[in-house]
Amino acid sequence: MAERIPGWVDGIDAASARLTTGMTWTSSGDLPADPVGVRAGIRPAPGAPGQVSLNGDTVTVNAFQAVLPDPSGAGPFLVTVDGARRLTLTPPGRLMQRITWVLVQLTVDADGKPNGIELRLLDGPASDVEHPAVPPAPPPRAHLLLAELYLMDTAPVRVRDKRRFIAAVGGVLPVLDAADRPVSAPLGSYVHRLDTHVLEVATKDGWRTLDPTDTGWQAATPEPRWAHKTDRPLQVRRLGRMVSLSGTMTRTFPANAIRVAAYLPAEFSPGGQGHVWIAHGVLRPMGGEARFAALCLSAYRHPDGRTQLSLEESIDHVVEVWFDVTWSAD
Questions:
Q1: How far is CA 173 from CA 22, 81, 298, in A?
Q2: Which strands form 143-152's sheet, in the order they lie side by side?
Q3: Own/partner pairs for 233-239, CB < 8 Å, 24+ apart?
Q4: Could you read off the pLDDT tens digit of each residue along the chain, which spans 330 residues?
């Protein structure tokens, strides 16, 4: 493609204006990689835009706005269907089956110049076999498939949602499933899987799921003879697989060397055999002066599934322990 006129200068033509507008939308993500191509799809919005529903032989398509790339590469078309549209479905015939596509496509005038859009039904061949053929390819004009209808003479019509969505450059792209993800997405691109409701990011090794787990900070429950320090209670949080423990606990007397300080719910359990850290604390021997000390702190899975926090050496004189540690959960 030759160099184009910069956007919105005097004398710009329609094709160059469309190229300029297309810069704001997600790239096509197709192979071979096309740095100028734009993804075809519906702009996400409330009200299920472009969704297809069926009532008897009436097909209803919700209002929507969409981007339709021009197969010639001259820049995408931005189209609007500003209200629900209804189309009439023709039965496939007695004991017959058929696949029908619901699509929006560009219309052209007698000279082949784009002059509008239309919603239409594209029927495949009727057949008495279990898997009828798909409809023939639409004309080589900008178009977008919205739904696939499976018609049987002896059963209700099945509607399969085929909408694709778009996003602004750098935005999170909604995709129907793994097959709907861009094939050649730029590194760092994000998609929201509508089938699994998880966020994925494009890396050099392919798509990677971002763990959505975030428990928020939760209060840990101290064991007998231990208590939260009022201004810094012991709390735990899991973000993805990373668990963070923060806070301060104090001992009450008589001490009786109770090593277990607290238990945490099973979702915070460390992987493997457990984890050991150095925690900091204050020791005060009976009748002596308080002093700072390093203490060995362990976290491991208790037989009942909970995470047990323990101090691993003699703690007869421990008065206060400060926790600021992290570990990887199962």
A1: 16, 21, 43
A2: 114-123, 97-108, 143-152, 155-161
A3: 234/262, 234/323, 236/264, 236/268, 238/213, 238/214, 238/267, 238/268, 238/329, 239/213, 239/214, 239/215
A4: 456 666 666 777 877 888 888 888 888 887 677 788 889 999 999 999 999 999 988 999 999 999 998 877 778 889 999 999 999 998 887 778 899 999 999 888 888 778 888 999 999 888 877 667 777 777 667 889 999 999 887 788 899 999 999 999 889 999 999 999 998 888 899 999 888 788 899 998 889 888 767 788 888 877 777 777 778 888 888 877 788 888 887 776 545 555 677 888 888 877 665 666 666 666 655 555 666 666 677 777 777 778 787 776 555 566 677 778 787 776
Residues 280 and 295: beta-carbon distance below 8 Å:
yes
C-alpha–C-alpha distance, residues 153 and 93, integer Å: 7
CB atoms within 10 A of CB 22: 24
Q: From the centroid of its chain, how far is CA 13?
A: 38
Place of tokens 């899975």: 301
Distance CA 91, CA 146 (A): 20
Name which of 253, 177, 162, 263 is nearest 221 in CA terms: 263
